[in-house]
Design brief:
Number of strands: 30
Distance between the termini: 40 Å
Helix content: 25-40%
Shape: globular
Number of helices: 14
Radius of gyration: 23 Å
Structural class: alpha/beta
């Protein structure tokens, strides 16, 4: 019996507050302002200058020799129409494409050396390096004014500057320095933005009795034709990202398998990789997300080795909250997991485009190596920004080089889950692989009941998300008792498990993994997806209610649809 129902949601309230006046640093003659911000994120205030001796770890992102090389390679090996399709790059080949110009490395190292500093390379490509300095040294080096900022409601503290400068001679060599002007996103989970409504679809599907008592492995297996046949290729792995202390308990998994997968060995387990002082302490209470992600990967991707990549809160990448630390770790591996699913995200506007793009290009590098990267689209519908009528796209789903997973609910029929985040990026244009699908949707939208309410609230020329979807409602999870969990954080591991099982079948035939999915999904894979045509992701925000509707074809609520393993298996040639 379910004794609790919770919503695992990505809260996306994001707006700006006017920054408090700070002391103005004196800029050296040869320095030019590189980045600055005129306002603080909502809720932050200045608590005064940071103590001069406060240690800082600053990461310098060097300009790549050819910024388009990695993306070009990604599309070359991911487009089914390309002669290079499936010929994924090695670690060394990808790193070479992402490498900065040697002149950039020399120039930056010479500048640092003049100030008695040396940098440590952080990536195989050498495009990120780190220096360790105190606040006093950083202020002098960058003509900055590092101060202590606090978030009023959460108590979160961060040492940041509202601007920094670099020598004019280094323009074109340095993309950015971090953390400087980017602020951490306060953690505020289990919050659903606004009221959601949805429409009942007219065409029902066949009933699935396995789903009548909530979403379980049996429900998903029946709904999506997911096989129970164990995977057999041990080198085919599924990575699951854990954040914010969401521990996964071994005894909970064992109980879950005994209850919902009695055909499996209940001792089936997972490995753990710890980053940023993360831990998977078995003696702390459950906070649901870790249990959900592990139980519905181990419990669906039968016998696929699952690695729980557990991020602590001692982030080395500041406001990126471990995202950069994780992808850099994966890039350092000779054989990273072939699938990575992540159930976390934030508002696109939380990060500058420059910082977002550095991360996005890192995902492209990983994708070019054959890794399918999936992110939950979010649980806030189209998103609400205080004092604004514009919708709020999410990160990392806005990145064109990852696969964004939205949510559905029900089973007879299956419709869009009302919280499924979706929309259009304000940072990235519509990628070529989805241009036709997005164009068709916009034509449909213009003639739909949603047209007036959405007009002017989104970037019609932006990257559309999600790309695909899966169930996001009433997931039965064991954490000492049975609870029902909702959110796209359930949909992403579900879809990721399907991809991992497809990769296993490919590996059995001596074929490589699917890698970056989107070009294949939009060209061929959509034939193996269940098109969702009912429901919407409307929210009530600042007095208005608006959102997008699910329609035939791609839509910014459920993407191209939910998986059908058998059909997808045929489409990959098996």
């Amino acid at each position: 019996m379910v004794d609790a129902t919770r919503l695992l949601a990505l809260s996306l309230f994001t707006s700006l507050a006017i920054a408090s006046p700070l002391s103005t640093p004196k800029f050296s003659k040869d320095l030019l302002v590189h980045e600055k911000r005129d306002a603080l994120p909502l809720g932050f205030y200045s608590a005064g200058p940071a103590a001069p001796h406060t240690p800082l770890k600053l990461r310098i992102a060097l300009s790549q020799s050819n910024p388009d090389a990695v993306v070009g390679a990604l599309y070359s090996v991911s487009n089914p129409s390309s002669e290079n399709y499936g010929q994924h790059l090695s670690k060394q080949e990808a790193a070479k494409l992402a490498a900065p110009n040697p002149d950039s490395i020399s120039a930056v190292n010479a500048w640092l050396s003049e100030h008695g500093l040396s940098a440590t390379p952080l990536t195989p490509a050498g495009d990120w390096m780190e220096i360790q300095v105190n606040v006093s040294k950083a202020n002098a080096l960058l003509a900055a004014d590092f101060s202590l900022f606090k978030h009023g409601s959460t108590g979160l503290e961060a040492v940041r500057t509202l601007s920094y400068s670099v020598p004019a001679s280094l323009k074109g060599h340095i993309d950015l320095i971090h953390p400087t002007t980017a602020f951490p996103e306060p953690i505020d989970s289990n919050v659903l933005l606004g009221k959601r409504s949805f429409h009942t679809p007219a065409v029902p599907r066949a009933s699935s009795s396995s789903c009548s008592n909530g979403t379980t492995p049996a429900c998903l297996q029946e709904l999506y034709n997911i096989p129970t046949t164990p995977a057999s290729v041990s080198s085919n792995k599924l990575g699951v990202t854990g954040h914010f202390g969401n521990n996964a308990h071994y005894d909970f998994l064992e109980h879950f398998l005994k209850t919902f997968r009695p055909d499996m060995d209940s001792a089936t387990n997972f490995t753990v990789t710890l980053l940023d002082s993360g831990n998977n302490d078995q003696d702390v209470p459950s906070v649901s997300e870790g249990e959900l992600d592990i139980q519905y990967t181990v419990g669906l991707a039968t016998n696929v080795p699952v690695d729980y990549i557990m991020m602590g809160i001692k982030w080395q990448d500041g406001a990126l909250e471990g995202y950069l630390d994780e992808v850099n770790y994966l890039l350092s591996l000779d054989t990273p997991p072939q699938v990575l699913t992540t159930s976390y995200g934030m508002a696109e506007s939380s990060l500058s485009f420059e910082l977002t793009d550095k991360l996005c290009k890192a995902y492209a590098q990983l994708g070019a190596r054959g890794v399918s990267i999936l992110f939950a689209s979010g649980d806030s519908g189209v998103g609400c920004q205080q004092n604004s009528t514009s919708f709020v796209p999410t990160f990392p789903s806005n990145c064109p080089y990852v696969t964004s997973v939205g949510g559905t609910e029900g089973f007879s029929p299956e419709v869009a889950w009302s919280g499924s985040s979706g929309g259009f990026s304000n940072y990235y244009p519509t990628p070529s692989y989805q241009s036709s699908a997005v164009s068709s949707y916009l034509t449909t939208l213009a003639a739909s009941p949603f047209a007036n309410a959405t007009s002017g609230k989104f970037n019609a020329s932006g990257r559309g998300f999600p790309d695909v979807s899966a169930k996001a409602d009433a997931f039965q999870v064991w954490e000492g008792s049975l609870v029902g969990l909702f959110g796209t954080s359930a949909a992403s591991p579900t879809f990721g498990s399907v991809v991992a099982l497809l990769n296993d079948r490919l590996a059995q035939k001596g074929k490589g993994p699917l890698g970056f999915l989107n070009p294949w999904l939009y060209e061929k894979g959509l034939q193996g997806l269940n098109d969702i045509t009912g429901g919407n992701n409307s929210v009530s925000c600042n007095g208005d209610e608006a959102g997008f509707g699910a329609v035939a074809g791609w839509d910014p609520v459920t993407g191209l649809g939910t998986p059908d393993f058998d059909k997808l298996l045929g489409l990959v040639g098996l």
